[in-house]
Design a protein that fits this description.
about 230 residues; alpha+beta; NADH Oxidase; 4-stranded antiparallel β-sheet; about 45% helix; binds flavin mononucleotide
């Protein structure tokens, strides 16, 4: 017979692997709001993320209800007017070689999932604009961050926080999607939420209950094998 502790460990590993493999970026949510208790529980998990020198550089805002509506209207308006106010540059033309290939593959899978043809510019914009209605999510989390030097390390910390938040959502039966698209309007978002300009924004996370029937949830992105990105030394 296996010792109890080993069984518990195996069960824990099994659950962890299940959570990890069922997390996926959700692009279609139900209206159903998430209870305050559950949101707090996810936030308690997310704050366990590691950070450089334990600086815990996340200043998280959760937006719901009327404020979310106001934010969505502002983002759609600013996006249509192409009034971008990002804190950090982002240019997909900078992707090269296999990174570019993976980006193209995501693009194709994504638009195929929404049944929009490559040449259908309007259809593609409609799908892309779903970012600004948060794919119908009832909540958005924005982990604002202080600015330190070139911000690379603090950006890494925010990434760790984001992934911990996303995995906790999955473990709670919820779904989420990190969105750089929201970061294109960091200035507008700060204004609406009354956040000081010292705090910067990389991405937001829309979250809630996944709508299993949404075309935005009809595809799953794969990953390349370890042989393409891991080198062992000894
Ligand atoms: C920091 C970050 C920002 C992202 N921004 C967006 C976004 O603005 N819009 C979007 O549809 N997906 C966005 N994604 C989701 C990625 O496309 C997705 O993670 C990737 O294709 C892998 O798919 P998966 O998350 O379902 O495994 C973002 C992901 C990350 C990590």
């Amino acid at each position: 017979m296996e010792p109890e502790i080993l069984k518990q460990t195996q069960q824990g590993l099994y659950i962890f692997k299940e959570v990890l493999r069922s997390r996926t970026s959700c692009r279609g949510f139900l209206d159903t709001p998430v209870s305050e208790n559950t949101i707090t529980s996810v936030l308690e998990d997310a704050k366990l993320a590691p950070s450089n020198c334990n600086t815990q550089p996340w200043e998280t805002h959760i937006i719901s209800g009327n404020k979310l509506k106001e934010l969505s209207e502002a983002l759609l308006r600013e996006n249509n007017a192409e009034r971008f106010t990002p804190d950090f540059s982002f240019d997909t033309n900078e992707y090269h070689d296999r990174y570019k290939e993976r980006y193209f593959n995501l693009s194709k899978t994504h638009y195929d999932g929404f049944r929009v043809k490559r040449e259908d510019k309007e259809g593609r914009k409609e799908v892309s604009d779903l970012n600004y209605t948060f794919f119908n999510a009832p909540h958005v989390a924005i982990p604002f961050m202080p600015s330190f030097g070139d911000n690379v390390r603090v950006g890494g910390d925010i990434g760790m926080y984001g992934q911990t938040f996303l995995l906790s959502l999955t473990a709670h039966g919820l779904a989420g999607i990190p969105q750089t698209a929201l970061g294109f309007f960091a200035g507008t978002i700060r204004e609406i939420l009354n956040v000081p300009s010292e705090l910067k924004m990389l991405f937001g996370i829309s979250f809630g209950y996944a709508d299993p029937n949404s075309p935005g949830n009809s595809f799953k992105l794969g990953r390349d094998p370890l042989s393409s990105n891991v080198t062992f030394h000894q």
